[in-house]
Amino acid sequence: MLKGQTVALLYGGKSVEHAVSCRSAATMYQRIKACGHTIIPIAIDRKGQWSLHEPASDYMPSAFKQASEVIIRPGHGLWLPKEEKPLPIDICFPVTHGSGGEDGLLQGLLELTNLPYVGCGVQASAVGMHKHLAKIVAQQAGISVLPSYLCQAQTIQPYRDAQNPEFMKLFSAIQQKLGPSIIAKPNDGGSSVGISVLHPVSSENLWQALHSAFRFTQTVLLEPFLQEIQEIECAVVSTKGQIYASEAGLVVDSEHAKNHFLTYEQKYLSSQQAYIQVPAPLAQRTLLQISEQAKIIAQSIGVQGYARVDFFYKSKTGEIWFNEINTLPGMTAQSHFPTLVQTMGYTWETVIETLLLEGFFAYNQRSVRQVQAVE
Q1: N or C terminus of the chain with fewer C-beta within 10 Å?
Q2: CA–CA separation, 204 vs 195, rounded Å?
Q3: Which residues of the chain are modeled with pLDDT < 50?
Q4: pLDDT (0 to 100) of residue 256
Q5: Which of the four CATH numbers 3.50.4.10, 3.90.180.10, 3.40.50.20, 3.30.930.10 does domain 6-117 have?
Q6: What residues does each domain of the chain span?
């Protein structure tokens, strides 16, 4: 068993998912500590400033503390400038959901500091965070995806209003490709922030949905809105580069008929939170097919450590579509990933050990490549 490591728990960040990250950190602090490791909690505030923090019960604080500021020294790890000394870190465990923490930026920074870290690397994080790119990779691997349309803020904003002739042309093209009802969501967002269902779509509500999403992103992904579909999820875990997938689980939401999709409140705040039913009540052949597709997608994108792969399933036709991959899934007490990996035989202790070992493995692999390149 892997014991006695000093783990830097990184959380918070500038993302709209800041609060979810703080909740994940509270859970992971207790779980990693129970495994016998020393934890150094490092909060990233909403401005991107780093500082040490003491743990709290169910929500880790993240306000910047000047007296315990943490800085990055490329090649030399993380430092306390006030004390002019490095932090004694063996490995970093990011639970930084969303932009700036899940999209490869933080991962690249940690590689520049020469520190091992848990989870996907730069490339997989960047591809996974951008839904359209992930769909392209999945489609190239032979996995079905829904048709989609990307809208850039810089293209839409000059049109001024929904009646602009150029915008009306765009609206017609979108409707022709995607159908009478669509869903609009930030291409690089998560936790259902900025999502709108347009049922049916019109030029006016499309205009409003795009500008609502542009508050969080520069690129909006439009897809057909399909009724009577089920949301299915799989956890994936890698061990020395080999990908393993959990049984498929069904997302159960008592308010789905009203909202058409899982809102941020339903995921994290509602008294009737959505939950994962594992295994999903589907035929065994379908369950195996979804798990196999999750493995293929994870391998194609280059997952290291862990991820959660999400699908849409239509029971009437048996169709399966890849939806998205979360390369840094939520780890709160209500999150689906911890439940899904139990079907693989993991406990909290064994999954944490596996993720830490895989972080060290990935670090050593990068180090070997760098030495070979020099030679």
Answers
A1: C
A2: 16
A3: 264-270
A4: 59
A5: 3.40.50.20
A6: 6-117, 128-144+228-362, 149-224
Q: What count of other Cβ atoms lies within 10 Å of the Cβ of residue 318?
A: 12
Parallel/antiparallel/unpaired status of strands 71-72 and 78-80: antiparallel
Task: Extract the tokens encoding 164.
Answer: 């602009």
At residue 254, the pLDDT reads 67
Q: Does this chain's domain 6-117 share its CATH topology with 128-144+228-362?
A: no
Exposure string (b/e) for 272-302, b if CB count within 10 Å is 16 or more? ebbebebbbebeeebbebbbebbbbbbebbb
Q: Tokens in use for 144?
A: 């079905």
Q: At what angle do helices 203-213 and 165-178 cross, to 10 degrees?
A: 90
The amino acid occupying position 137 is V
CA atoms within 13 A on the CB side of 346: 25
- Residue 162's pLDDT is 93
Tell me: domain 149-224, CATH 3.40.50.2000, correct?
no
Architecture of the structural domain at 128-144+228-362 = 2-Layer Sandwich (3.30)
